[in-house]
């Protein structure tokens, strides 16, 4: 099965809902959980190179640039081609999740995880552990151990694992493996800095 077909299963992974019901992310093919609010994470700006691959794939995977800005008003995630052409933009604030994709690049974007799933993966890697633990369905666990963050289902099966690498600025997520949907993200931080309090999007 191609990367495009596998990742098409994730299209319903995140649903933008009204302010009365928070957006939800897919944990596996049958289970969804509300996303943490955008605000628990420290205010930050990060520019990263993400490479997406399938286990056993014979090629190096598809790459995209992401720019994450987390501020008091909410967060914004922008995806770009390695040449800097915008693929999508996602805004998550008090009114929910709002996304836009450049129509002319739909074929290229379809070979990558859906933009909302990228948002959920980024939040799973960066947001405080307690903020996720408060939203997970009963029986699901998320723990940190030996430089990893491990998400398990009620049967104790490993669903998602995130490995952190030591960098001059501290521990950074460097690899995320989603075992149910069968993809892996390799993350390389190119630039990061705190966002001043009161900054604007």
Q: What would you say about this model in short?
A:
This protein has 201 residues and is mainly beta. It has one domain (3-193): outer membrane lipoprotein receptor (LolB), chain A (Clam). It contains four helices and 13 strands.
**How many H/I helices?**
4
Shape: globular
**Average pLDDT metric:** 79
Output the helix-strand order. Answer: HEEEEEEEEHHHEEEEE
Spatially, the strands of the biggest sheet line up as 8-7-6-5-4-13-12-11-10-9
Strand content: 35-45%
Radius of gyration: 16 Å
Helix content: 10-25%
CATH third-tier fold name: outer membrane lipoprotein receptor (LolB), chain A
Low-confidence stretches: 1-20, 197-201
Proper CATH architecture:
Clam
What can be said about the biggest beta sheet?
A: 10 strands, antiparallel
Tell me, what is the CATH class? Mainly Beta
The total of beta strands comes to 13
Separation of the first and last Cα atoms? 39 Å
Q: Structural class of the secondary elements? A: mainly beta
Number of domains: 1
Report on the structure:
This protein is mostly beta strands and 201 residues long. It has a single domain (3-193), classed as outer membrane lipoprotein receptor (LolB), chain A (Clam), CATH 2.50.20. The protein is built from four helices and 13 strands. The strands form two sheets. It has a ten-stranded antiparallel β-sheet with strand order 8-7-6-5-4-13-12-11-10-9. Strands 1-2-3 form a three-stranded antiparallel β-sheet. Strand 12 and strand 13 form a beta hairpin. The longest helix has 12 residues, at 115-126. It is globular, with a radius of gyration of 16 Å. The relative contact order is 0.21. Residues 1-20 and 197-201 have low confidence and may be disordered. It holds the Pfam family DUF3261. This is DUF3261 domain-containing protein. Keywords: Signal.
